[in-house]
Input
Amino acid sequence: MPAEYFQPPEATLSKPEAYGELASQLAGLMDGETDLIANAANMAAVIYHGLPDLNWAGFYLMRDGGLVLGPFQGKPACIRIPVGKGVCGTAAATGVSQVVADVHEFPGHIACDAASRSELVVPIKVGGRVIGVLDLDSPVVGRFDDEDRVGCEALVRVLVDHIK
Output
């Protein structure tokens, strides 16, 4: 699917329906492309423009034993995050998605944007190894829930299926 045909999901859709639509559009955008950076860049844009109440959507990729800023949409961000530190580092260290209703209550939260109040981080695994994380931030406390986690894990599977 050519990028110019991207349409954010209708506001009347349920969260599972909206994530299904985003997954379908992502698969179309990534069709025939296997480059991680190119696909992550489009995915960050699709998520940022396709989901409500976000102030940041992007990736941190594993480089030299730590997480390094990758493609994103939003304000400039922290460049490096140690594995095990903050929400992103915790997801990378544990291999488990993190849903944080209020980042001020997460021990060791790394504040790249003071406006962020809630966060969802999904590890990206290839062959059982974490190669990075998808990170979503919102200025709204409690923005993310289990439906968002499931939906974003499905989006990450689309990405993994389209990289070499």
In short: The helical segments are 15-30, 36-50, 86-94, 146-161.
